[in-house]
Amino acid sequence: MASVRQHSFDVLIVGGGPAGMAASSTAAAHGHKVAIVDDNPSLGGQIWRGRSFSSASKRAADKTAAAWYRKVQNAQITHLSGLRVFDSAQAGVLLAESQDGPNSQYGQWELHYRKLILATGAQERFLPFPGWTLRNVLGAGALQSMVKSGLPVAGKRIVVAGSGPLLLAVAAYMRAHGAQVVEICEQASMGQLAAFAFGLLASPERILQGMQYKLQLLGTPYRTGCWPVAAYGTQRLETVVLSDGRRTREIPCDYFACGFHLVPNVELPALLGCHLKNGFVEVDPLQQTSVPDIYCVGEPTGIGGLEQALVEGEIAGLASTGRVEQAQPLQRERKKMQSFTERLEKAFALRPELRRLPDAQTIVCRCEDVTFSQVREYASWRAVKLHTRCGMGPCQGRICGTAGEFLLGWNANSVRPPILPVRFQTMAVAPAIQEIKSQNG
Fold it and tell me: Could you give the angle at the alpha carbon of 95 between the alpha carbons of 416 and 79, nearest 5°?
């Protein structure tokens, strides 16, 4: 049986994106034993992956990333890369498994903590439509990630569609790498976006960011009130069909990047007993959850963007190490940012027409090949899982569960360990894990 590595920390941060980086560097500033655990080989999360951490960079985003990266590097922080947290043995102990990477030889890990900060981020929401499982139909963020990892897109025709600010960021990134961005389609109406833009007048930095994207995408059609209804191709994607509710258009393309805003990764907070409200982790002004000594920051508390994630990370880093008074100015800053989060949610609310996207034969659960006709007869997430195996595959319902919440009103918040797929050799230590749990009630 594989051995289990045990480590103890004053403050443990799960998630190596901007929020986790801010939390870890802030917590470590006064001598506390701090660790940051992430399943990626390097810090930065999706938003800063592939960024230049050179101080010579002239881009504001790169300078921000570089500044926080230096803070983490200069602090006494244990960086546990390539580890995936999949369960909790007891209060104060997380269980993790090594992925391929520098820690892979160690197998299973027990991570003990006094304070825990969850910075688990968010993922794209996918809505199934006919043809969405074709090769080269990808999530907008997924395509960006693949390009960052070396996928060549120079000269490729790309249609970007769905909802949310990520569409512009992805389109600009694709164009900067030589792709031909044929069109950007946002399902939200012009009225919704106009109201959102008007509310940004008090945030000149966000207006500037939007203008920069527009300049980078000069000449690329940007259509509002437009959404995908089908994708066609034989071996791979050949065309996509877009609709504005009155007429449809078929557009040839090589890649289709499609995502309907973001949904928070709340599986670990839910497993630990943190209270959720409207799908997000509920926290107090110090970012503490309903569970004592557990804090949550970033997208799991509300889809508010980079600046809010960094501020929340700092607040939790201070609060978890007892420096509550220092966190107060940041609390006021965060409160101002919350209005942006509320406007963002309202601006990109999904239109009801999207509930009619899948037809009877559209696959809803890609892991288990479950179609829409098989799941629409059931009123609950539990019933669907029991009768169709929908949500029982490797993604553990992260794709079909969030889609079903919108399409059919499911409540897919039930969570059981392991929250991520793990290897059989990891499950072989289950008796030892159960012994820990039984000894501690």
Answer: 130
> Which pLDDT value is given to residue 198?
82
**pLDDT, tens digit (0-9, with 9 covering 90-100), for 32-68:** 999 999 998 888 888 887 665 555 455 666 788 889 9
**318 close to 324: Cβ distance less than 8 angstroms:** yes
62-92 core/surface letters (b: 16 or more CB in 10 A; e: else): bbbbbebbebbeebebebbbbbbbbbbbbeb
CB count in 10 Å sphere of residue 266 = 22
Residue 331 tokens, joined: 């609390």
- Name the token pair of 200: 């940004």
| C-alpha–C-alpha distance, residues 306 and 63, integer Å | 13
Tell me what the pLDDT averaged over the chain comes to.
89
Q: pTM score, two decimals? A: 0.91
Residue 88: which of 274, 350, 288 has the closest Cα?
274
Expressed in angstroms, the distance from the first to the final Cα of the chain is: 25
Domains annotated on the chain, with CATH: 4-123+263-345 (3.50.50.60), 126-260 (3.50.50.60), 354-408 (no CATH)
Which backbone phi and psi does 88 adopt, to 5 degrees? -125, 120
Residue 152 pLDDT greater than 60, yes or no: yes
Among 188-197, 383-392, 420-429, name the one with the lowest average pLDDT.
420-429
